[in-house]
Specification:
single chain, about 120 residues, Hypothetical Protein Ychn, Chain: A, 4 helices, about 20% strand, globular
């Protein structure tokens, strides 16, 4: 791998444009031979639930569900903020493929060597 990259996403259906663009960038990074994590927090944690992204399709982009699936199939990882997940009382049994509920320490460990990060 040529390094690490992190995309931090705080939006879901409250800003589908930002949610979509975040996964476009994540796909570009993973295609560039980066070890990539998308960190879902705040409202973004809803994207970790099966079916949530199914109807999100911003004009000019692939459907969000497809972008997420392609990202995971290419080796990307999705970290889901544990406190944000619990606050919203989401269902751990409905996590999408590639998603893992993590605490802040796991994200800090991934980013500890100066990992470039973009936030949406």
């Amino acid at each position: 791998m040529a390094g690490k990259y992190c995309v931090s996403l705080t939006f879901g259906k409250d800003n589908t444009d930002k949610a979509t663009v975040a996964f476009v960038i994540a796909n570009a990074a993973v295609a560039s031979d980066k070890e990539v994590v998308v960190f879902l927090s705040i409202e973004g944690v809803n994207l970790s639930q099966q079916g949530y992204a199914d109807d999100i399709h911003e004009e000019g982009f692939a459907p969000l569900k497809e972008l997420i699936t392609n990202f995971v199939n290419a080796g990307g990882k999705i970290f889901v903020c544990s406190p944000c997940f619990k606050k919203r009382k989401l269902d751990e049994g409905k996590l999408i493929s590639g998603a893992a509920i993590v605490g802040g320490a796991k994200l800090v460990e991934f980013m500890s060597e100066g990992t470039p990060t973009i936030c949406y």
